Amino acid sequence: MTNTTKRKLSWVSFIFFVSFFSGIAQSRDSVFTIDSICRNYKYIVLDSNRIHNDASLKDFFAALWQYEEKKTDRVNVVHIGDSHIQADFFSGTVRENFHHDFGNAGRGFVFPYRVAKTNEPYSYKTSTNVVWDAKRNVFPDRPLPIGAGGITIETFDSNAVINFSLSEKNTIDYSFNKLTLFHEKGKASYDYIVCDEYNCGIGEINSKDTSSFLSTVTFEKPVKQFILKCKVNDTLSKCARIYGLSIENGKRGVLYHMIGVNGAEYRHYNYSKYFQEQMKVMQPQLVIISMGTNEGFHKGFNAEIFYAQIDTFITTIKNKNPGTVFLLTTPADSYRKQGRSKLPNPDMLKARQTVVKYANERNIAYWDLYEVMGGFKSMAKWFASGLTAKDKLHFSKKGYIIQGTLFYEALKRSYNNYLKTQ
Predict the structure, then answer these.
(1) Which of 53, 131, 139, 266 is most enclosed, with most CB atoms within 10 A?
(2) How confident is the model at residue 31 (pLDDT cuts 50, 70, 90)?
């Protein structure tokens, strides 16, 4: 038995298991542990905090194990969702824990949300000098195709610049030496110059190469910011259209991509023209899907239609990414406006039940946030504790961090159980 194997088996002992998970979750402002969550929020049902059907994740767990045995250098995760994910407090907590435990391969997929006039994750900042047209996938009838980010931005101003910088508040170093740009190519598209804070000699991107929608620039040393400038090299060039970016550091570790769009539903990603093709580039070994809130929020919820939309989305991803495994999260309990009041929303329970039904019938792993948070009407308790927004639909930063802590604890426990068989 190797030392590495001995170390892995020791994780599954009860004493180490408890002490390990009591310190896994760190945020920028607070430290949450499973013990402190249990002590301060007694309405949270820790007995329900587990990954159901976790045997279906064995290929992903095998990839983590092979990585730890240094047989591979990278594990790829893609987390897709709605406004609960766009803010990146939930997914960001999970990412940071993965990077703490398994290694940091980079921040992964990012989108210039502020350039698109919407809220941006805390871990980076973007800005621009011109106005860009923007389209979210929730508006399928509007012009512009949708790619990997669920949002597309476009400008016809050849003087356009996008500034990108990592937040100084990040507790993990997300400096990067590789930039991948997802963008429209062809004679009608602008080229780009990539600059750092000192010069523009880092690299150029030629959009006339129509072989794909990707362009990559590498840096001589890790950086925390860059400037993307449009460049006209052809009289036919008339616009810049960007679908997103990915930043990596070239190190061993987990690359945890986040894709979130305010208001998004499963059907909106199904309508997105280039989403599946571009996401395939990320080579996901695990796809986490956190949706259902918007389907359950609107009146007239139809479980059969929702079930079919989930199936279309997952089936398409499977066809594009053979070998990928899935982990669904159910929508949370919430309230809905009725007249002048906000009342508990029974349709959200139906949406949760639909996700669970689909996962059980298709043998897909799921994490039941609805039950973990306390079930029907539990949102009122979270609100009273300052863990939600006033709308009793979204959560506060602290609430999302607690969710991320609980989710990661459940996933890591399933992984440790898997290690017992190795």
Answers:
(1) 266
(2) low
Determine what percent of the chain falls in helix, strand and coil, rounding each to the nearest 5.
35, 25, 40
Cα separation, 256 vs 75, in Å, equals 8
- What's the pLDDT tens digit per position in 366-389? 999 999 999 999 999 999 999 999
- Alpha-carbon gap, residue 8 to 67, rounded angstroms: 13
Instruction: Please give the CATH number for the structural domain made up of 124-248.
Output: 2.60.120.260
Q: What is the pTM (predicted TM-score) of this model?
A: 0.91
Q: State the residue for tokens 């703490």.
A: 100
R_g of the chain computed on alpha carbons: 22
- Please report, to the nearest 10 degrees, the dihedral formed by the alpha carbons of residues 101, 102, 104, 110 taken in order: -90
Cα distance between residue 301 and residue 102, in whole Å:
40
pLDDT of 22 strictly over 50: no
Mean pLDDT in residue range 39-50 = 95
CATH topology of domain 19-105+253-419: Rossmann fold (3.40.50)
